[in-house]
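Raw record, unedited: Signal recognition particle protein
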Amino acid sequence: MFETLSDRLTSVFSSLRGKGRLSEEDINATAREIRLALLEADVALPVVREFISRIKERARGEEVSKALNPAQQVIKIVNEELVEILGGETRQVRFAKNPPTVIMLAGLQGAGKTTLAGKLAKWLSADRNTPLLVAADLQRPNAVTQLQVVGERAGTPVFAPEPGNGVGDPVEVARASVEHARRNNHNVVIIDTAGRLGVDTEMMQQAADIRDAVSPDEILFVVDAMIGQDAVNTAQAFLDGVGYDAVALTKLDGDARGGAALSIRHITGRPIMFASTGEKLEDFDLFHPDRMASRILD
Ligand code: GDP
């Protein structure tokens, strides 16, 4: 995860080692190198600009600390600014006062929504929740079956249209699932919605209709981190078309660069809530900005 960015930053810092004090020239040269590292990591330009201007400002203004040498001071500043750009605090799930808490997943096909639904169910169950998975992706023929397989592995029941009832209406399925959860003591409902390979208005409308029918407590935008800046564009399209409360980043295990993770919060104003780091149901947790920053600078 983020190896390329990590390596680049490490080499930037190593060139500062041994310096007694940082000149204006040193600060500018370091900022230039960090800028290149971020651009190479596919971080969105406005984010790079903001990041660099804050680093420069702080490096110039930083009080001389006896405890830290200049290289350590720059690392400290970069670390703090990385935490900030990644969202600062860990975003926790907001549970509804009156259960069930409704969590809706939206995103492109292949983003990892169905897998994430299972991961989330398992993660919630470990904390004594009683989730219900809902198959509201009725676009792909085997999406329901796929969710059932995931549900089985997560040990979570799946609410799906009755076989033989035709394709079914995803909005009705979503609505009925909340009723079903209420009657059967499921305190969380996780709704998997349909995605397409690209953003299209019909898909957006369907997600918006489901949203309007069930008023989710949390809408999560699920996005593949490996697509870099494209993730930012898709994130913007979903923000305009459906709206969401937080982001779930998937496939971080295959993301050497980190551009999506570092850009999405700043560009959308929505925090990253979950990180998915593999195909197994256990490869999943809340996204912790501070741990992620340490990992980048490790
Ligand atoms: P959906 O179309 O959005 O429901 O996406 P799926 O859940 O079907 O996931 C698409 C593919 O990505 C599947 O092959 C998953 O196994 C894989 N996948 C999902 N999440 C992760 C992840 O965090 N890491 C890796 N390496 N693969 C993932």
